[in-house]
TrEMBL record:
Lineage, uppermost ranks: Bacteria, Bacillati, Actinomycetota, Actinomycetes, Micrococcales
Protein name per Swiss-Prot or TrEMBL: TIGR03089 family protein
Domain of life: Bacteria
Length: 138
């Protein structure tokens, strides 16, 4: 295909640079094409969707329909974690525990730190990530 040929509506050509940290398309863009990396960087990290119904099922696990409230009740953040906590979820937690932990921490504008099983949780790691609390696997 001719890279200089314009893109005719209603089609849209989105050019994606293959480098994981590329800041933009490397080379000339056809008239009407969109540089994906440049477009994404111009957008803020915000989602303005409708508020979810807390009573509606959020996910299904083990044959049960779980709501956001169910997940909220399944995790208690560590005492002293504070507002906007940075919480480490201990390695070995299952998916449901990880989702519940993420929901609990993110509702406090916090950060959830995940560590793969087999990676030692050292004082250096905890200090480097500025961990303010830890959650167990259950």
């Amino acid at each position: 295909a001719d890279a200089s040929a314009p893109v005719e509506p209603p089609r849209q050509l989105v050019c994606v640079a293959l480098g994981s940290l590329a800041l933009g398309w490397d080379g000339p863009l056809p008239r009407g094409a969109v540089d994906f990396a440049a477009e994404v960087r111009s957008q803020g990290d915000a989602f303005f969707g409708a508020d979810a119904d807390a009573a509606a099922p959020l996910l299904r696990a083990d044959g049960r329909a779980l709501t956001g409230d169910d997940l909220d009740r399944s995790v208690v953040l560590p005492a002293g974690a504070g507002q906007a906590p940075t919480v480490l979820l201990e390695p070995g937690a299952d998916l449901l525990r990880a989702l519940a932990a993420a929901l609990a921490v993110w509702q406090q504008d916090g950060t959830l730190v995940l560590v793969e099983e087999g990676v030692p949780v050292t004082e250096r790691l905890l200090a480097g990530e500025r961990v303010t609390g830890r959650l167990g696997t259950a």
